[in-house]
């Protein structure tokens, strides 16, 4: 049966100022600001009604990275929330009021099945006010992310929450198109977006807390050129939201300096906010145009995918699974970083990486350990 036509609509990408809070009570300050920015955007762009809103990673709680302000697991659990829960319910009310889909990301979520840790969680609320999709961030970088990835607890996670590709990288079919989501570092490599594309995503909502040190501004606009590639390869819209500015004693105000964007299904940038300040971007989403584009064979990034030659890359694990099982959540960044020693040993032993002059393959992991020891001894990384 033929589908009904989806009329073009407006999507909002919210780039807020975020305050790093100490506990759950502090969340309301960030939430009130977000709600007002949604009210603004829905009202201002009334002629082509808003149907979708994308919020950045850690928009509720903020997060601390290495150094004096590093967030430990106990710090994070003080501000962890449940989804659904009273904080998310406030956004659900707005979704019902305006008939919106709202995607928020990077929420420090306490999950009943694994109560000793938190997950970095994206959610999508539907116009009914219900949670229609929930996703746990897969690629959490060891050096800046302390949340648990499903991969860290893989066997248990799959048993309790599902291990099919549709469970791990869900896509929801809605009246405004097929929606999926990925978080921040997920977009640095092709796999997560490819899984979403495989599952049918037409729009990837992409919350991020992308730091300048990770490449936001030109000439090293890593955030932009990698995400244009993700959109192009999967022939989907990609809506990326970053912080505009931040309030935290240990961060510069422009720590995550904006540059939120809307990218279309050809990889073309439609809108951008190229500055570290609050903003609400609006772009027109035309799902019917995307669907027509996908019917063509020329330059179709899916019809010519030939999988057989690539299987060995994924048959040989790189980053080890199941390293933080129940009872042993990741407690410090240095604990997660230390696992990279094993990864280095493997990459250099197989000859994939070549060490610099004067360094033997087996010595690279020792270099990393020396750096960790020095950072801990001088207060650059937490010991516990």
TrEMBL record:
Keywords: Hydrolase. Residues 9-287 form the CN hydrolase domain. GO terms for molecular function: N-carbamoylputrescine amidase activity. InterPro entries: Aliph_Amidase/BUP, C-N_Hydrolase, C-N_Hydrolase_sf. It holds the Pfam family CN_hydrolase. GO terms for biological process: putrescine biosynthetic process from arginine. This is Nitrilase-related carbon-nitrogen hydrolase.
């Amino acid at each position: 049966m033929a589908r009904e036509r989806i009329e073009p609509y407006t999507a909002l990408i919210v780039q807020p100022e975020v305050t790093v809070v100490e506990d759950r009570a502090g969340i309301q300050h960030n939430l009130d600001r977000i709600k007002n920015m949604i009210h603004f955007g829905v009202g201002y762009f009334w002629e082509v009604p808003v149907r979708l809103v994308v919020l950045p990673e850690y928009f509720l709680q903020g997060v601390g990275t290495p150094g004096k302000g590093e967030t430990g697991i106990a710090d994070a659990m003080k501000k962890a929330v449940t989804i659904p829960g009273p904080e998310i319910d406030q956004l659900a009310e707005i979704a019902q009021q305006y008939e919106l889909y709202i995607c928020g990301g990077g929420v420090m979520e306490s999950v009943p099945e694994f109560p000793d840790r938190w997950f970095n969680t994206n959610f999508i609320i539907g116009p009914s006010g219900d949670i229609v999709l929930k996703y746990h961030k897969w690629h959490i970088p060891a050096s800046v992310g302390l949340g648990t990835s499903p991969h860290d607890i893989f066997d248990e996670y799959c048993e309790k929450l599902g291990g099919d590709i549709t469970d791990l990288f869900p896509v929801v079919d809605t009246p405004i198109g097929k929606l999926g989501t990925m978080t921040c570092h997920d977009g640095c490599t092709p796999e997560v977006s490819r899984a979403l594309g495989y599952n049918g995503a037409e729009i990837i909502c992409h919350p991020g807390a992308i730091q300048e040190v990770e490449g936001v501004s030109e000439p090293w606009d890593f955030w932009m050129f990698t995400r244009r590639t993700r959109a192009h390869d999967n022939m989907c819209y990609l809506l990326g939201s970053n912080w505009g500015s931040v309030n935290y004693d240990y961060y510069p105000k422009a720590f995550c300096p904006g540059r939120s964007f809307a990218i279309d299904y050809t990889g073309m940038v439609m809108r951008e906010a190229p500055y570290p300040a609050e903003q609400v971007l609006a772009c027109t989403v035309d799902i019917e145009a995307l669907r027509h584009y996908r019917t063509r064979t020329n330059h179709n990034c899916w019809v010519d995918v030939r999988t057989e030659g690539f299987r060995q890359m994924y048959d040989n694990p790189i980053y080890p699974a199941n390293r933080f099982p129940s009872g042993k959540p990741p407690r410090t960044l240095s604990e997660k970083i230390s696992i990279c020693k094993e990864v280095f040993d493997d990459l250099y032993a197989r000859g994939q990486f070549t060490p610099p002059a004067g360094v033997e393959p087996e010595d690279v992991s020792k270099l990393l350990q020396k750096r960790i020891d020095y950072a801990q001894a001088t207060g650059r990384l937490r010991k516990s």
